Prior knowledge:
Layout: H1 2-13, H2 16-35, H3 43-58, E1 71-73, E2 76-78, H4 80-93, H5 97-122, H6 125-137, H7 139-144, H8 150-165, H9 172-186, H10 191-203, H11 212-215, H12 219-231, H13 233-239, H14 248-259, H15 264-269, H16 273-288, H17 291-296, H18 316-333, H19 338-349, H20 352-355, H21 367-387, H22 391-413, H23 433-437, E3 447-450, H24 457-463, H25 468-474, E4 476-477, E5 488-491, E6 494-497, E7 507-511, E8 517-521
Parallel strand pairs: 3-6, 3-7
Antiparallel strand pairs: 1-2, 4-5, 5-6, 7-8
Helix pairs in contact: 2-5, 2-6, 3-4, 3-5, 3-24, 4-5, 5-6, 5-8, 5-21, 6-21, 8-9, 8-10, 9-10, 9-12, 10-12, 10-19, 18-19, 18-21
Amino acid sequence: xxxxxxxxxxxxxxxxWIVGILFLALVGRLFYFIYYNVxxxxxxxxxxxxxxxxxxxxxxxxxxxxxxxxxxxxxDFKLPGYIYLTSLLGSLxxxxxxxxxxxxxxxGIINIYLVYVLGxxxxxLAAARWAAAFLLFSPxxxxxxxxxxxxxxxxxxxxxxxxLTFNKIFSWKRSIFASFFLLLSGLTYNSPLLLSPxxxxxxxxxxxxxSKRQWLKIIPLLLAIVLVVLISLPATMQKTGISIFSxxxxxxxxxxxxLQFGRPLLRSILGNQWVFYxxxxxxxxxxxxxxxxxxxxxxxxxxxxxxxVGHLHFWLPIIxxxxxxxxxxxTLNSLSNQKNWLxxxxxxxxxxxxxxxxxxxxxxxxxxxxxMLTLISGTTIANIxxxxxxxxxxxxxxxxxxxxxxxxxxxxxxxLIGIWESPQVDSHWYLGLENRLEDVPxxxxxxxxxxxxxxxxxxxxxxxxxxxxxVQATVVRSDPDTAGLQRxxxxxxxxxxxxxxxxxxxxxxxxxxxxxxxxxxx
Length: 522
């Protein structure tokens, strides 16, 4: 009898909707992760895996620095969070392509639950359930859980922070835990640092404004932000080079823009830098809302989406627009409702990391924006449910949503299976390289690999498990180019070249097509 009572209590306490969604996410994504995932690492994954393996082996990175907090790779700085977590996992389960993708995979599953938690706090249980379901089937959520993206793990830590602070009662315990996860998010990816003012804004809601003592509870959050800035300063300074405020092209265009206003008064009002950069931000914001970016194509980076698709299902922007209209209407009807203002602030603030960079719209800097789109989609469905007392009408709506979700899933899901054997794949994935590396003879002759982008050394070093000692002893790098990037020209017996070498002895590997590589003897 006692067991029956406990089971009844469990049934009432546990939301089996989210349990089912998480189960489907785990099984479905794990099946894809094992059998149909991208068969090659991109350059960022390769660098993450190489440094994680070297750290686990010897405590030094590929540049020979001991336990660094900023990792340099391809002339770019990487934050330590993802690398050290991958290093820990690799020490436990060995290093492979799976190892570097596992943190992002786990983060993607947890993100579904976090969206559910935030949905309940922002919009209620019904909206939370639908938002979790949308994220389960969202192309961006699926794709970013399949590849080793620092941004996806950083998003998970950021959502934990937000879920802890988005609460009427903001205790010292919540503040300390939130600060810890804010620190982790900022040391995993750059965007959470730019989004951290939103966390401070959310933490100031409710009872924190009732007394002066409550203000002290944001001190741990501020300390976490300062600590992230101090630790990640080299990476942060390097990233400022891709902002619109540092872009040399925009700086060269600005004088012409200013001269188009003939009169001095107009030139000082409309021709100043604030107006100029505001125009760029508005343009980037518009592009981030574009149907082309969200649904049809995605961003310019071939790693950020499956070939030929975007980030959302074709019908979801309509649901988002309706949900945003509902939230704005509720805000205007009740101007004193603090929560509605916070939701709008989070929605529009979520795009800050993307719109201030020159290559916007940019997916990895827009992941929190995608989360907000998902949450707003959930509240749209919940409001439709609340506005119809008739069960028949609601079931008809539900059937329509299920059909749309199925169509969207089919339209995107058909690309999942077999896409990496199709001619649509971008050549920057360098598919088939590892298959050809297996055929390299075990002799003393040098191996020359065609690598015009200068990114394959990490994949080769990982494939052959070159030791930290061998990497440090044999690596040869070029001088920095105008952007500060240094190309690896050699590691081990493997040379990375722009063209077929002449008058050399050894083996030469080059891509036959986008799927296969050839090898000839020189």
